[in-house]
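Here is the promised in-class demo. Please do not try to memorize the tokens; focus on the logic of going from shape to residues.
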């Protein structure tokens, strides 16, 4: 019944979200109900099991906290100040706006995992700038839509949370996945920088005019506190991984249990939110009314993502109860495939499912069996999770459904259909290849010890 539940979940979500054009939260909630009904007379029991599992998971709180954090970071204008600093450094390069757009997407990926939010936030600033400095509308929109996947290819993100909450990920910790995904995500960022370099030469894009560049000294004086946001990431990581963590375990009263109790996925959004509020305090005081309006405008996205995360986690719990993980794993295992072929099949399956669905819904649907299948062929559990996340990160760049495609096209006044082939060639297929190289161990990622 598990596979049937999975098919029902995907079918309902696709029909409601894609064909009926309803909100993804509504689609996932209806999918949750449909999954429970597959259990027949056990439906009420299964639904209650899913609800209680989702409510009691720290992943639910962490996901909501990251959404709220993203709203605060955007409302205080912190990302704009970071981009201004990057512009002062890279604007003098040919195609400098493209490099800044890529770095900005990476930064947004580190603090908020939404692909649509990534493209909307970064694109609103960098698309007009790219168009002014020689990028065609289609190129600018394609880059922003393709880069939106960094919201999933870099930690932390709700997709990562959902997979971590599944039994199939029990052999890996949040800290291990966080660090390993950061390594793999860094490769994804470097690749995108190479794409910008290639497009800059191919399209003969010039350097940014000097009158559009804020001198670094001025940019730094106005936004020197904005990079402090990354302390919100560094502090929990340093406290749980590496020499400082070892010292706390062995030489203080904190001990191993105390260090283990520090949750990266809980403390990162809390600390970054506090830092953003402190860093942007003067701006909030000067523009209090505007700040409140911005918060009110963004609150619907908070509700949408929160409900989506809850429904996806609950549906995943029900599908696990119905045995979807074991059934899909047994199906894949019965193929008796070598590791390289299994990675290809899992990668293609993840991309196909992520095309009509969000990365969050994809993780809920196939995350557990994908990780289990990859682990069964000898891949480290943490690496298996990273491979799955890299493949699902194609959500925003997968035509014809990806929301970032149409958001970016609208901001750039570009033709979305002319972006489809470049997105597949420059972003979707290369991410599958990157996932394959990581899974095969041909590109190393660091997995901390337990």
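The designed amino acids, position by position:
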């Amino acid at each position: 019944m598990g596979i049937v539940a999975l098919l029902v979940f995907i079918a309902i979500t696709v029909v409601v979200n894609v064909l009926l054009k309803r909100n993804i939260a509504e689609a996932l909630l209806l999918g949750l109900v449909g999954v429970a009904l597959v259990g027949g007379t056990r439906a009420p029991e299964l639904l209650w099991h899913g609800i209680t599992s989702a409510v009691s998971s720290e992943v639910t709180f962490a996901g909501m906290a990251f959404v709220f954090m993203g709203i605060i970071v955007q409302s205080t204008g912190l990302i704009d100040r970071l981009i201004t600093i990057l512009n002062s450094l890279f604007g003098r390069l040919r195609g400098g706006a493209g490099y800044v757009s890529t770095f900005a997407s990476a930064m947004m990926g580190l603090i908020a995992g939404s692909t649509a939010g990534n493209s909307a936030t970064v694109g609103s600033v960098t698309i007009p700038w790219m168009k002014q400095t020689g990028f065609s509308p289609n190129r600018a929109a394609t880059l922003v839509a393709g880069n939106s996947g960094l919201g999933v290819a870099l930690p932390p993100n709700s997709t990562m949370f959902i997979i971590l909450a599944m039994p199939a990920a029990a052999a890996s910790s949040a800290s291990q996945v966080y660090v390993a995904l950061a390594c793999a995500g860094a490769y994804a960022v470097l690749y995108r920088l190479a794409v910008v370099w290639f497009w800059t030469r191919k399209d003969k894009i010039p350097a940014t005019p000097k009158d559009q560049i804020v001198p670094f000294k001025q940019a730094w004086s106005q936004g020197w506190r904005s990079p402090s946001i990354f302390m919100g990431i560094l502090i929990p990581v340093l406290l749980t991984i590496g020499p400082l963590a070892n010292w706390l375990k062995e030489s203080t009263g904190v001990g191993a249990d105390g260090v283990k109790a520090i949750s990266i996925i809980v403390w990162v959004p809390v600390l970054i939110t506090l830092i953003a509020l402190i860093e942007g305090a003067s701006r909030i005081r000067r523009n209090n009314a505007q700040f409140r309006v911005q918060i009110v405008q963004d609150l619907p996205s908070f509700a949408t993502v929160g409900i989506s995360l809850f429904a996806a986690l609950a549906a995943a719990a029900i599908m696990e109860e119905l045995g979807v993980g074991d059934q899909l794993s047994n199906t894949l295992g019965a193929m008796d495939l070598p590791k390289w072929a299994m990675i290809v099949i899992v990668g293609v399956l993840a991309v196909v499912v992520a095309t009509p669905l969000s990365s969050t819904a994809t993780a809920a649907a196939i995350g557990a069996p994908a990780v289990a299948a990859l682990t069964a062929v000898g891949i480290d559990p943490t690496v298996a999770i990273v491979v799955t996340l890299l493949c699902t990160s194609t959500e925003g760049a997968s035509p014809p459904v990806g929301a970032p495609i149409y958001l970016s096209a609208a901001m750039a006044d570009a033709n979305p259909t002319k972006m489809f082939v470049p997105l597949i060639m420059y972003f979707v297929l290369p991410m599958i290849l990157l996932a394959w190289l990581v899974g095969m161990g041909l590109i190393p990622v660091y997995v901390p010890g337990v």
